[in-house]
């Protein structure tokens, strides 16, 4: 059962449907079709009534009716008396771009294969398992040895931390979702970066949050005075930020802005949730970037989320939360509604790898540097008109082009074997049609191939911004 789409939700996804001065029913139908084909309007989703949609997007009822008629005629909409109009894909369904791979080159996921040494760490962990088998295995806070190792890693990074401040979770996503549902009430305002990490938006919205966008530019990053102003003016309950190698732009918040941002959040009574999932993926970043929590004047004003998924392996599913003891107590009380702990063997493996973090990070640095260099070289050779920001770490870059065709580009690329998420996936309101996240975490060869595919389809997409039909024909 797919959830119906509200008029306001569809209006947000349709934000730029009048682009290029076209405001007729064809432009609206094209836009809805694009949303269906790239998965943002899932197959089976019921659309709002024509009247509600007309009011929301400020179009005439005639325009909406004609657009829906065209979608019905082309097989993208099915209307049944009494049950409304439902999205369809002629000849089948389309999987979401953020879904698993199926033989496609998967650039919708910015992640790397397991780090070398993973197998050996697993064997050492298995050797230590018997000592744990006498207990029940339900470790609501996490295995004590791993909590200590995570605390030590924070301390090494310049943020003194005790084991009692650490909660182990099943990945960073589970950590974000737990913080969201424990700390938020329905209707609470939450500041999020835009573009940003889509599954965090989902977790926050799922907890009832109203999201307030804080712009992050692919070149200049955050407008720090504007960020402070937004916090002080809107006094949100929470701000969810990725200050190090932000996903998708790769930008880092300058060291000198960090203290001011934390002070602004504290003054506004805002809980800062800092996602450090990508924080240790440095290639050649210049400057000093202390963890945001090191600027907190109160232990309970910042919650930090981390993960093993990007440094060690996504299949490990181990993350953590660093918070004050009182916040941790609240999280532990809320946790059983979602899960009852994280697999003990996975925690033991993570503990082993944390014991050799210098080698883990050295491997990632070399691998990502090679892929980053290949990405830059291939883009400048094959797509010289695209704007590519400076890349000094993280997992991806956020390129820009002149035409608003990111969704069409992603659809055309998929027909050539490349799964990549179009720019609008990373916005809260369907914007970013002139941007594309290109991950480089899959290594130099795969990254080069991905850019070659983008270049192969680019001319067709850029020269024919309305060229939806040929692309669709190849996809469905
Ligand atoms: C910024 C950010 N936060 C959280 C996550 C989720 O991480 P995990 O796999 O540890 O749940 C990701 C994964 O892509 C991410 O990029």
Descriptive notes:
With 476 residues, the protein is an alpha/beta fold. It has three domains: 7-87, Arc Repressor Mutant, subunit A, CATH 1.10.10; 105-110 and 359-475, Aspartate Aminotransferase, domain 1 (Alpha-Beta Complex), CATH 3.90.1150.10; 129-355, Type I PLP-dependent aspartate aminotransferase-like (Major domain) (Aspartate Aminotransferase, domain 2, 3-Layer(aba) Sandwich). It is built from 17 helices and 14 strands. An eight-stranded mixed β-sheet has the order 4-11-10-9-8-5-6-7, sandwiched between helices. A two-stranded antiparallel ribbon has the order 1-2. A two-stranded parallel ribbon has the order 3-13. The two termini are 22 Å apart. The relative contact order is 0.14. Mean pLDDT is 91; it is low at 467-476. Residues 171-173, 197, 242, 247, 275, 277-278, 307, 309, 314, 319 line the site of pyridoxal-5'-phosphate. Pyridoxal-5'-phosphate (PLP) binds at residues 171-173, 197, 242, 247, 275, 277-278, 307, 309, 314, 319.
Task: Present the secondary structure layout.
Layout: H1 7-13, H2 25-37, H3 50-57, H4 61-73, E1 77-80, E2 84-87, E3 105-107, H5 118-128, H6 130-133, H7 144-156, E4 166-169, H8 172-183, E5 189-194, H9 198-206, E6 210-217, E7 221-222, H10 224-234, E8 238-241, H11 255-268, E9 271-275, E10 302-307, E11 319-322, H12 325-334, H13 344-354, H14 357-382, E12 396-400, H15 406-415, E13 418-420, E14 435-439, H16 444-463, H17 468-475
Parallel strand pairs: 3-13, 5-6, 5-8, 8-9, 9-10
Antiparallel strand pairs: 1-2, 4-11, 6-7, 10-11, 12-14
The chain binds pyridoxal-5'-phosphate.
């Amino acid at each position: 059962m797919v959830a119906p789409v509200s008029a306001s939700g569809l209006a947000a996804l349709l934000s730029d449907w009048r682009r290029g001065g076209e405001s007729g029913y064809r432009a609206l139908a094209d836009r809805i079709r694009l949303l269906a084909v790239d998965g943002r309007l899932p197959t089976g989703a019921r659309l709002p009534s024509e009247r509600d949609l007309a009011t929301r997007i400020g179009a005439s009822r005639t325009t909406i009716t004609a657009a829906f008629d065209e979608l019905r005629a082309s097989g993208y909409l099915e209307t049944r008396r009494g049950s409304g109009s439902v999205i369809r894909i002629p000849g089948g369904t389309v999987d979401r771009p953020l879904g698993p791979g199926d033989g496609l080159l998967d650039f919708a996921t910015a992640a790397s294969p397991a780090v070398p040494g993973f197998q050996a760490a697993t064997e050492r962990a298995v050797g230590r398992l018997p000592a744990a088998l006498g207990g029940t295995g339900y470790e609501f806070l996490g295995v004590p040895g791993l909590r200590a190792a995570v605390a030590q890693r924070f301390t090494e990074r310049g943020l003194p931390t005790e084991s009692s401040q650490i909660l182990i979770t099943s990945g960073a996503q589970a950590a974000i979702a737990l913080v969201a549902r424990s700390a938020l009430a329905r209707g609470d305002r939450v500041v999020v970066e835009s573009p940003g990490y889509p599954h965090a938006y989902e977790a926050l919205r799922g907890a009832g949050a109203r999201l307030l966008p804080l712009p992050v530019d692919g070149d200049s990053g955050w407008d720090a005075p504007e960020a402070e102003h937004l916090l002080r003016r809107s006094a949100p309950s929470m701000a969810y930020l990725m200050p190090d190698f932000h996903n998708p732009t790769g930008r880092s918040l300058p060291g000198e802005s960090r203290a001011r941002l934390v002070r602004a959040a504290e003054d506004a009574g805002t809980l800062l949730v800092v996602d450090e999932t990508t924080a240790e993926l440095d290639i050649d970043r210049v400057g000093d970037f202390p963890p945001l929590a090191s600027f907190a004047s109160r232990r309970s004003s910042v919650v930090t989320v981390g993960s093993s998924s990007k440094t060690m392996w996504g299949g490990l599913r181990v993350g953590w939360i660093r918070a004050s003891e009182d916040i941790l107590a609240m999280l532990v009380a809320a946790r059983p509604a979602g899960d009852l702990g994280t697999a003990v063997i996975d925690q033991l493996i993570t503990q082993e790898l944390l014991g050799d973090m210098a080698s883990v990070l050295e491997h990632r640095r070399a691998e990502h540097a090679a892929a980053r260099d290949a990405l830059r070289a291939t883009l400048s050779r094959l797509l010289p008109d695209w704007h590519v920001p400076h890349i000094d770490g993280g997992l991806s870059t956020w390129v820009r082009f002149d035409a608003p065709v990111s969704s069409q580009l992603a659809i055309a690329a998929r027909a050539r074997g490349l799964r990549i998420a179009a720019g609008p996936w990373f916005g809260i309101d369907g914007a970013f049609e002139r941007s594309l996240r290109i991950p480089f975490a899959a290594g130099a060869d795969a990254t080069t191939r991905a850019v070659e595919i983008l270049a192969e389809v680019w001319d067709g997409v850029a020269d024919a911004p309305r060229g939806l039909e040929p692309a669709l024909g190849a996809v469905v």
